[in-house]
Amino acid sequence: MRTPGKQKLRDAVYGLYERRLMRSLSPDRIPRHIGVIIDGNRRWARQVGDPVSRGHEAGANKISEFLEWCDDVGVKVVTVWMLSTDNLTRPADELEPLLRIIEQTVEELTAIGRWRIHPVGALDLLPGSTAEVLKAAETATHDNDGLFVNVAVGYGGRRELADAVRSLLLEEAAKGMSIEELADRVDVEHIARHLYTKGQPDPDLVIRTSGEQRLGGFLLWQSALSEFYFCEALWPDFRHVDFLRAIRSYAQRERRFGT
């Protein structure tokens, strides 16, 4: 157990280090778009002896804090992966509380009134109440000119690609195109126009917490040239200093863009 004196010293040292990291960041080396895979909520809950739902609550509480950090350093777009299509197969006694937590979190982000909320995912796979909350958030924040926040709920990278190709084919078929003409339209440029994130810059940096070093299907198309940062901290324990380290790591890299 830490004594008050040791805790005070630790906080002071932490603050100095945090300010040093902030000063080291160059405005022209800040990622425009950050994708974040918020992983480790359940493990966090188990470690502290709480029910899984408490871990999801702690993770949800971290999201607005993370968005504030992104805002502070000048990030323009953030994609937060809150629920995957695979997560939808979890037992009802875990999934239903998680969906309620997501709904509440989205409503709270909307109420902040500064950020533009954009749902990305297969809304048709979600319960009606959750889909309605997401749609309402998008409508309510449409005119906000602050940070653009993609809320990925019911999201899977493979599903997104299938939806994009399906949307492209249906759009072109409605114009009376032949099979051969349709085949010509299935290219990189036209598929990109039908992604959930169409019109947005691809993520420059993707962060994943909890020590897992895999994408798990997150932004498969968009992250082809992204930089990745894997952090050992579980999402509820992810600190401002961890965020700044991720930005510093990104800034120090020489991006080659596939060349």
Automatic annotation (TrEMBL):
UniProt cross-references to NCBIfam families, sorted A to Z: PRK14828.1, uppS
Cellular component terms (Gene Ontology): plasma membrane
Description of how the protein assembles with itself and partners: Homodimer.
Native source organism of the sequence: Kribbella pratensis
The record's free-text note on cofactor binding: Binds 2 magnesium ions per subunit.
Protein family membership: Belongs to the UPP synthase family. Z-FPP synthase subfamily.
Gene Ontology annotations of biological process type: polyprenol biosynthetic process
Binding site for substrate: 40-44, 56, 84-86, 90, 208
Entry EC number(s): 2.5.1.-
HAMAP family: ISPT
Active-site residue numbers: 39, 87 (proton acceptor)
Cofactor requirement: Mg(2+)
Name of the protein this chain belongs to: Isoprenyl transferase
GO molecular function per UniProt: ditrans,polycis-polyprenyl diphosphate synthase [(2E,6E)-farnesyl diphosphate specific] activity; magnesium ion binding; Z-farnesyl diphosphate synthase activity
InterPro entries, per the entry: UPP_synth-like (IPR001441), UPP_synth-like_sf (IPR036424)
